[in-house]
Design goal:
- This protein is mainly beta and about 475 residues long.
- About 15% of the residues lie in helices and about 35% in strands.
- It has 6 helices and 30 strands.
- The strands form 7 sheets. A 7-stranded mixed beta sheet has the order 2-25-24-20-21-22-4, with no helix packed on it. Strands 12-11-5-15-18-19 form a 6-stranded mixed beta sheet, with helices on both faces. The protein has a 5-stranded mixed beta sheet with strand order 8-9-6-7-10, with helices on one face.
- Helix 2 packs antiparallel against helix 3 and helix 2 runs parallel beside helix 6.
């Protein structure tokens, strides 16, 4: 029970300001609470709820684009003191120093590689070899797992894929994640490749068309199903083909096979770029695209394959936002009043609901029912809130940890006689001056009607009411 306020104050029943202590419907069904007698209402912005754990996040449509160029694939490995790194093109463009190999070729995560002599200085390797982007062959498996996780988190979403190099090797159009068939189709559409050349323009523009729609001479691709969209692109090189800047144009085209496709919208999805390369390699182009589209850029050392799964999880966590409450209905069954919230504001881990009206609390027990609908789920909580001045301490309640009272100056109505001595008012009949002071809980207007009636008492002297004043007049006051 909240501390008692002075009797001249009016109190509201509200959530605690700590957003970590929002109302959890799964824990507070059937709870009771006693509040002081000055507590007269639940204000329109008084309740902060946690949401429903089982509610699915809002659907987001995502295109997953994977670089399948041969620069991802190592032809040699070097076992350093901390980890094993992959390399290719050793002494291809620079003859000295010569990198020496030892033993026979081995299979390294599906790649046939030579073993660089472990006594070779790392500086020599860096000077004549190129770092392989994906020596552990994790890029396809990581994106496949991302699609599966996407389906679990938001099964109403759609996803598409593309394997790219100098162009689009293969792609899967936007496919529903609500069925196992759709998920399997998307997963199997990603496959390792060894192409030559890197083209950002084609996978990004094709992804934009998949998400926002496009058309060719004979076909039209509609916009994907949901408003929230994104592209996740994984690569290890700077573009050597195409003109990546075209992707950012309000209107652009892309050639897929023999077909030219044009964008149907000037909308551009956020791009989340993952660059698999060591420090010193140039991921500036991908970073600039991510920045321009309000996405994000990540760089992962190729010899740290576990980092890729963690980064993709982080990206999905930022894209797939928690579900917002659809509605909250609060009914006081003791007085028949119902208020409904259809809007909310996220605050920390909670949602501050905006009811369409105040919920009045009566003296004595109040039988409250709260119904929350969120992300396709519904939860109901029945509370008993007793408004009482009983001096005895009430029993502890689960609601004590989540609700408190917020007290302040109440609205007031002051009546006083008009002592101005108007000629048409005798000593018994005078004007009454009315002053209304309101605290309207954020309402833009507070309509008030005050009615005046001509005196009918026995001391009436028969003087006429001044011209223009009706004997039964209504005056409306608009607040702001």
């Amino acid at each position: 029970m909240a501390s008692r306020a002075a009797s001249t104050q009016r109190c509201d029943l509200v959530s605690l300001p700590d957003t970590a202590k929002c109302i959890d419907f799964s824990k507070l069904a059937g709870a009771s609470l006693t509040v002081n007698a000055n507590t007269t209402r639940i204000p329109i912005n008084g309740l902060s709820i946690c949401g429903l754990p089982a509610a699915a996040p809002e659907p987001v449509d995502i295109v997953y684009a994977v670089d399948q160029t041969n620069s991802m694939i190592p032809t040699a490995v070097f076992a350093g003191s901390e980890d094993t790194s992959g390399w290719y093109d050793c002494n291809f463009s620079k003859a000295s120093p010569v990198v020496k190999f030892t033993g026979s070729q081995i299979d390294f995560h599906g790649n046939s590689v030579k073993i660089i002599d472990p006594t070779t200085p790392l500086a020599d390797i860096l000077s004549v070899c190129t770092v392989a982007g994906d020596p552990y062959n994790v890029r396809v498996a990581a994106m496949q797992n991302a699609i599966k996780a996407h389906a679990v988190m938001t099964p109403a979403s759609y996803a598409g894929t593309s394997n790219f190099g100098p162009g689009i090797l293969s792609s899967q159009p936007m496919t529903s994640l609500s069925t196992s068939e759709g998920i399997n189709t998307l997963v199997s559409s990603l496959a390792l490749g060894a192409l030559s050349g890197t083209n950002y323009e084609m996978p990004l523009t094709w992804g934009r068309i998949q998400l926002f729609g496009g058309k060719s001479a004979t076909r039209t691709i509609p916009s994907s199903a949901h408003a929230d969209k994104a592209i996740i692109i994984l690569t290890d090189g700077t573009p050597t083909k195409g003109t990546w800047q075209n992707f950012l144009d309000s209107a652009t085209t892309v050639q897929i096979g023999d077909t030219t496709w044009s964008t149907a919208s000037d909308s551009i999805p956020p791009v989340y770029g993952i660059f698999m390369g060591v420090n010193g390699q140039d991921g500036a182009v991908l970073k600039s695209i991510a920045t321009a589209t309000k996405g994000a850029f990540y760089q992962i050392p190729p010899n740290m394959p576990d980092s890729l799964a963690l980064v993709i999880k982080q990206i999905q966590g930022s894209i797939l936002k928690a579900s917002k409450p659809d509605t909250l209905r609060v009914t006081n069954r003791s007085n028949g009043q119902t208020s409904i919230a259809t809007t909310s504001v996220a605050s920390g881990n909670s949602f501050r609901m905006t009811l369409d009206s105040l919920v009045g609390l009566e003296t004595g027990p109040n039988d409250l029912q709260l119904v929350l609908r969120m992300g396709g789920k519904t939860a109901t909580a029945d509370w008993n809130v007793t408004v009482s001045d009983d001096p005895l301490a009430p029993p502890s309640s689960l609601l004590d940890k989540y609700l408190t009272t917020n007290c302040g100056t109440p609205s007031s109505l002051a009546l006083r006689p008009d002592l101005s001595g108007l000629p048409w008012a005798d000593t018994a009949d005078r004007n009454i001056l009315t002053t209304l002071t309101t605290h309207s809980e954020g309402l833009r207007s507070l309509p008030v009607s005050i009615r005046t009636a001509k005196s009918t008492d026995l001391e009436r002297v028969g003087l006429a009411v001044p011209t223009g004043s009706a004997t039964d007049a209504s005056i409306a006051y608009g607040g702001s």
